[in-house]
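Appendix B. Raw example, untouched.
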Amino acid sequence: MATTTTAPDRTRRRLLAAGRFAVLLVGAFLALVPFYSMVIGALQEERDTSLLGMLPLPGNLTLANFAGVNDSIDLAQSLLNSLIMTAGVVGCTLVLGLMVGYALSVLSFRGQGLVFALVLLVQAIPFQLLMVPLYVMVVRYFGLADSYLGMILPFAVNSVAVLIFRQYFLQIPRDVFDAARIDGASELRILLSVAVPLVRPAILTAMLVTFIGPWNEFLWPFLVTKDATMQPLAVSLANFSQANSTFQDNPMGAVLAGACVLAVPAVVLFLLFQRHFTSANLGSAVKG
């Protein structure tokens, strides 16, 4: 029997929808105001911290701040350093994460549970506690100061990526791997030809989750890089701010201009791939 919707029910649903929209609108406003303020501050010829300064007044807009910060720290080289570090970390994370996740979910070996427990334990240990021994090992023992490898090495294995790949591999029917073994495929061949194509959504998810960390990383590159030509943009901006840059007309505007340059790639990447955070699922990968 068909049910009819009464006027009070329709009113209640509309009020709930309006309430949800209002909450989302307030949340979006609070999230976007800092970014908007950063962009406006980067474009201002003279820094204005008043409420009126939040408005993009044509007479106070300029691109000189971007030119000023570029003259002081070489934005192109700093961006290249950030890109190389991030690409190296993401690449190592995907390769090692796939291998470890496959071993922990598909293979059977003694101590498998202990290894998985150690992966979980790493999640609970702050990176700051490991920084001193890592610095001694990477800089003093390996001699990797002022090098891309020295910046990448501590982040080469990401436990979050391992957990993502493990959960995806666990959802694949074991018969798929058994059939490949019967056909004579090695474990490496199974991983590359069978497992990896089935977990492409996980690869994209792990890449997006991993990207933002090394791209914004400051403390570790700050410790291991003293050569300005090797420093990523986050470190260069910090040095630019602390040294009371030579761009004296609007030093804060120049810092905000550099922050905009640092933020744009991450924002663009998120806008392009945001749907994959929610729509990526194993069902679409193994269907058929």
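End of appendix B.
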